[in-house]
Amino acid sequence: MATNIFNCPLPDEKGYFGEYGGAFIPPELQTIMDEITASYEEIRQDPEFLEELADLYQHYVGRPSPIFHAKHLSEKYGADIYLKREDLNHTGAHKINHCLGEALLAKKMGKKKIIAETGAGQHGVALATAAALVGLECDIYMGEVDMAKEHPNVVRMHILGANVIPATHGRRTLKEAVDTAFENYLKDPVTQLYAIGSVVGPHPFPRMVRDFQSIVGVEAREQFQLMTGKLPDNLVACVGGGSNAMGLFTAFIDDESVAMHGVEPAGRSLDIPGENAATITLGKPGVMHGFKSYMLQDENGEPQEVYSVASGLDYPSVGPQHAYLKDLGRVNYGSINDKEAIDAFFELSREEGIIPAIESAHAVAYALKLAQEPDVGTILVNLSGRGDKDIDFVVENYGKDYGIPQD
Ligand SMILES: *Cc1c(COP(=O)(O)O)cnc(C)c1O
């Protein structure tokens, strides 16, 4: 690998970014997390592992993903807008970057099976893909309601050889999928590895997932300088758990001239609890899902119900490094609502011929607003995924407003 992407100073050895992060888990799980941490420490310095991962990034994922200068949007909105094309990766999003890393780690640790929960099925499909390639069994836990809603992704996982295990209690969505996955993980944490899908969860996952994703920023920093002779003035990325944003930001953190913007989902309303998932914008520090960060809580201190038109962004907490960067003031966190995201979804499709994931459309919408401010300079947007998964939903719910014939 041209640059060693795995040498960030934070977190500390206990997994803290300032006061955020750590591991708030039962003792029996701590032993397992310690083993994962130790194995990760080993592989991240192992030239053979790094070589293997770099080779897969190039020949399997199709890295480096290009940077594209969106000239029509630039002209129309008044600043030069560039897109880092993670939508062109195999499986259509950035998630494959960390799923491959986690699958390779599981293999090196002698695990037989890799497991995870999934909401809309995007993490499930990326992990099932990595498991097929690396040669591991794969169990994906998914709420029954989500399975019906996201049927094509369930079929994809089956074709890839994964087991999709329904969560049948409660509201039968993501939270119940997490419960079921966790219960089964605790029954056999020795032969299985739980592959967390973003820069969240107990240490070492926020660090490990960030490290695997940081290839995005390492490539972008070099590519952008080759294209323009300078660093970008602004970086923009959507923030659900925060992995694609940390992937882009990490390589630029020490570049003081580069402003960074994280974009949260304002959903239908920022004023009504449960109608958004703007965790940093509206949340407070607290502990949830094994780590400390900003979180949205209800009056009982339980995770708040959250909502966004982008199912990849509706998480009531956020990666601990984002909480840290927020307090430091190094990253600006803003929000984009459903309507603005859908507008940007069509705008990018029609101006540049690129259909983005609705998650990524939040970052595009933010960039279009930023571009209209005076003297903003250049803007590099992380286009985290492609929109094929979203087209039926968008046309059914919004097509009429955008001139799409209804049958
Ligand atoms: C899952 C997903 C996200 C949100 O996850 P992060 O960890 O915040 O990056 C964003 N974009 C796409 C396309 C996704 O699939």
Automatic annotation (TrEMBL):
Keywords associated with the record: Amino-acid biosynthesis, Aromatic amino acid biosynthesis, Lyase, Pyridoxal phosphate, Tryptophan biosynthesis
Biochemical pathway: Amino-acid biosynthesis; L-tryptophan biosynthesis; L-tryptophan from chorismate: step 5/5
Gene3D superfamilies: 3.40.50.1100
Keyword Lyase: yes
UniProt cross-references to SUPFAM superfamilies, sorted A to Z: Tryptophan synthase beta subunit-like PLP-dependent enzymes
Enzyme Commission identifier(s): 4.2.1.20
Domain Tryptophan synthase beta chain-like PALP per the UniProt entry, residue ranges: 62-385
A Gene Ontology molecular function term of the record: tryptophan synthase activity
Catalytic reaction(s) noted: (1S,2R)-1-C-(indol-3-yl)glycerol 3-phosphate + L-serine = D-glyceraldehyde 3-phosphate + L-tryptophan + H2O
Membrane-spanning segments: none
CDD domains, sorted: Trp-synth_B
Residues the record lists as N6-(pyridoxal phosphate)lysine modifications: K95
Enzyme class, UniProt record, top EC level: lyase
Family as reported in the entry's similarity comment: Belongs to the TrpB family.
Quaternary structure and interacting proteins, as annotated: Tetramer of two alpha and two beta chains.
HAMAP family: Trp_synth_beta (MF_00133)
Protein's UniProt name: Tryptophan synthase beta chain
Lineage: Bacteria, Pseudomonadati, Campylobacterota, Epsilonproteobacteria, Campylobacterales
Name of the gene encoding the protein in the UniProt record: trpB
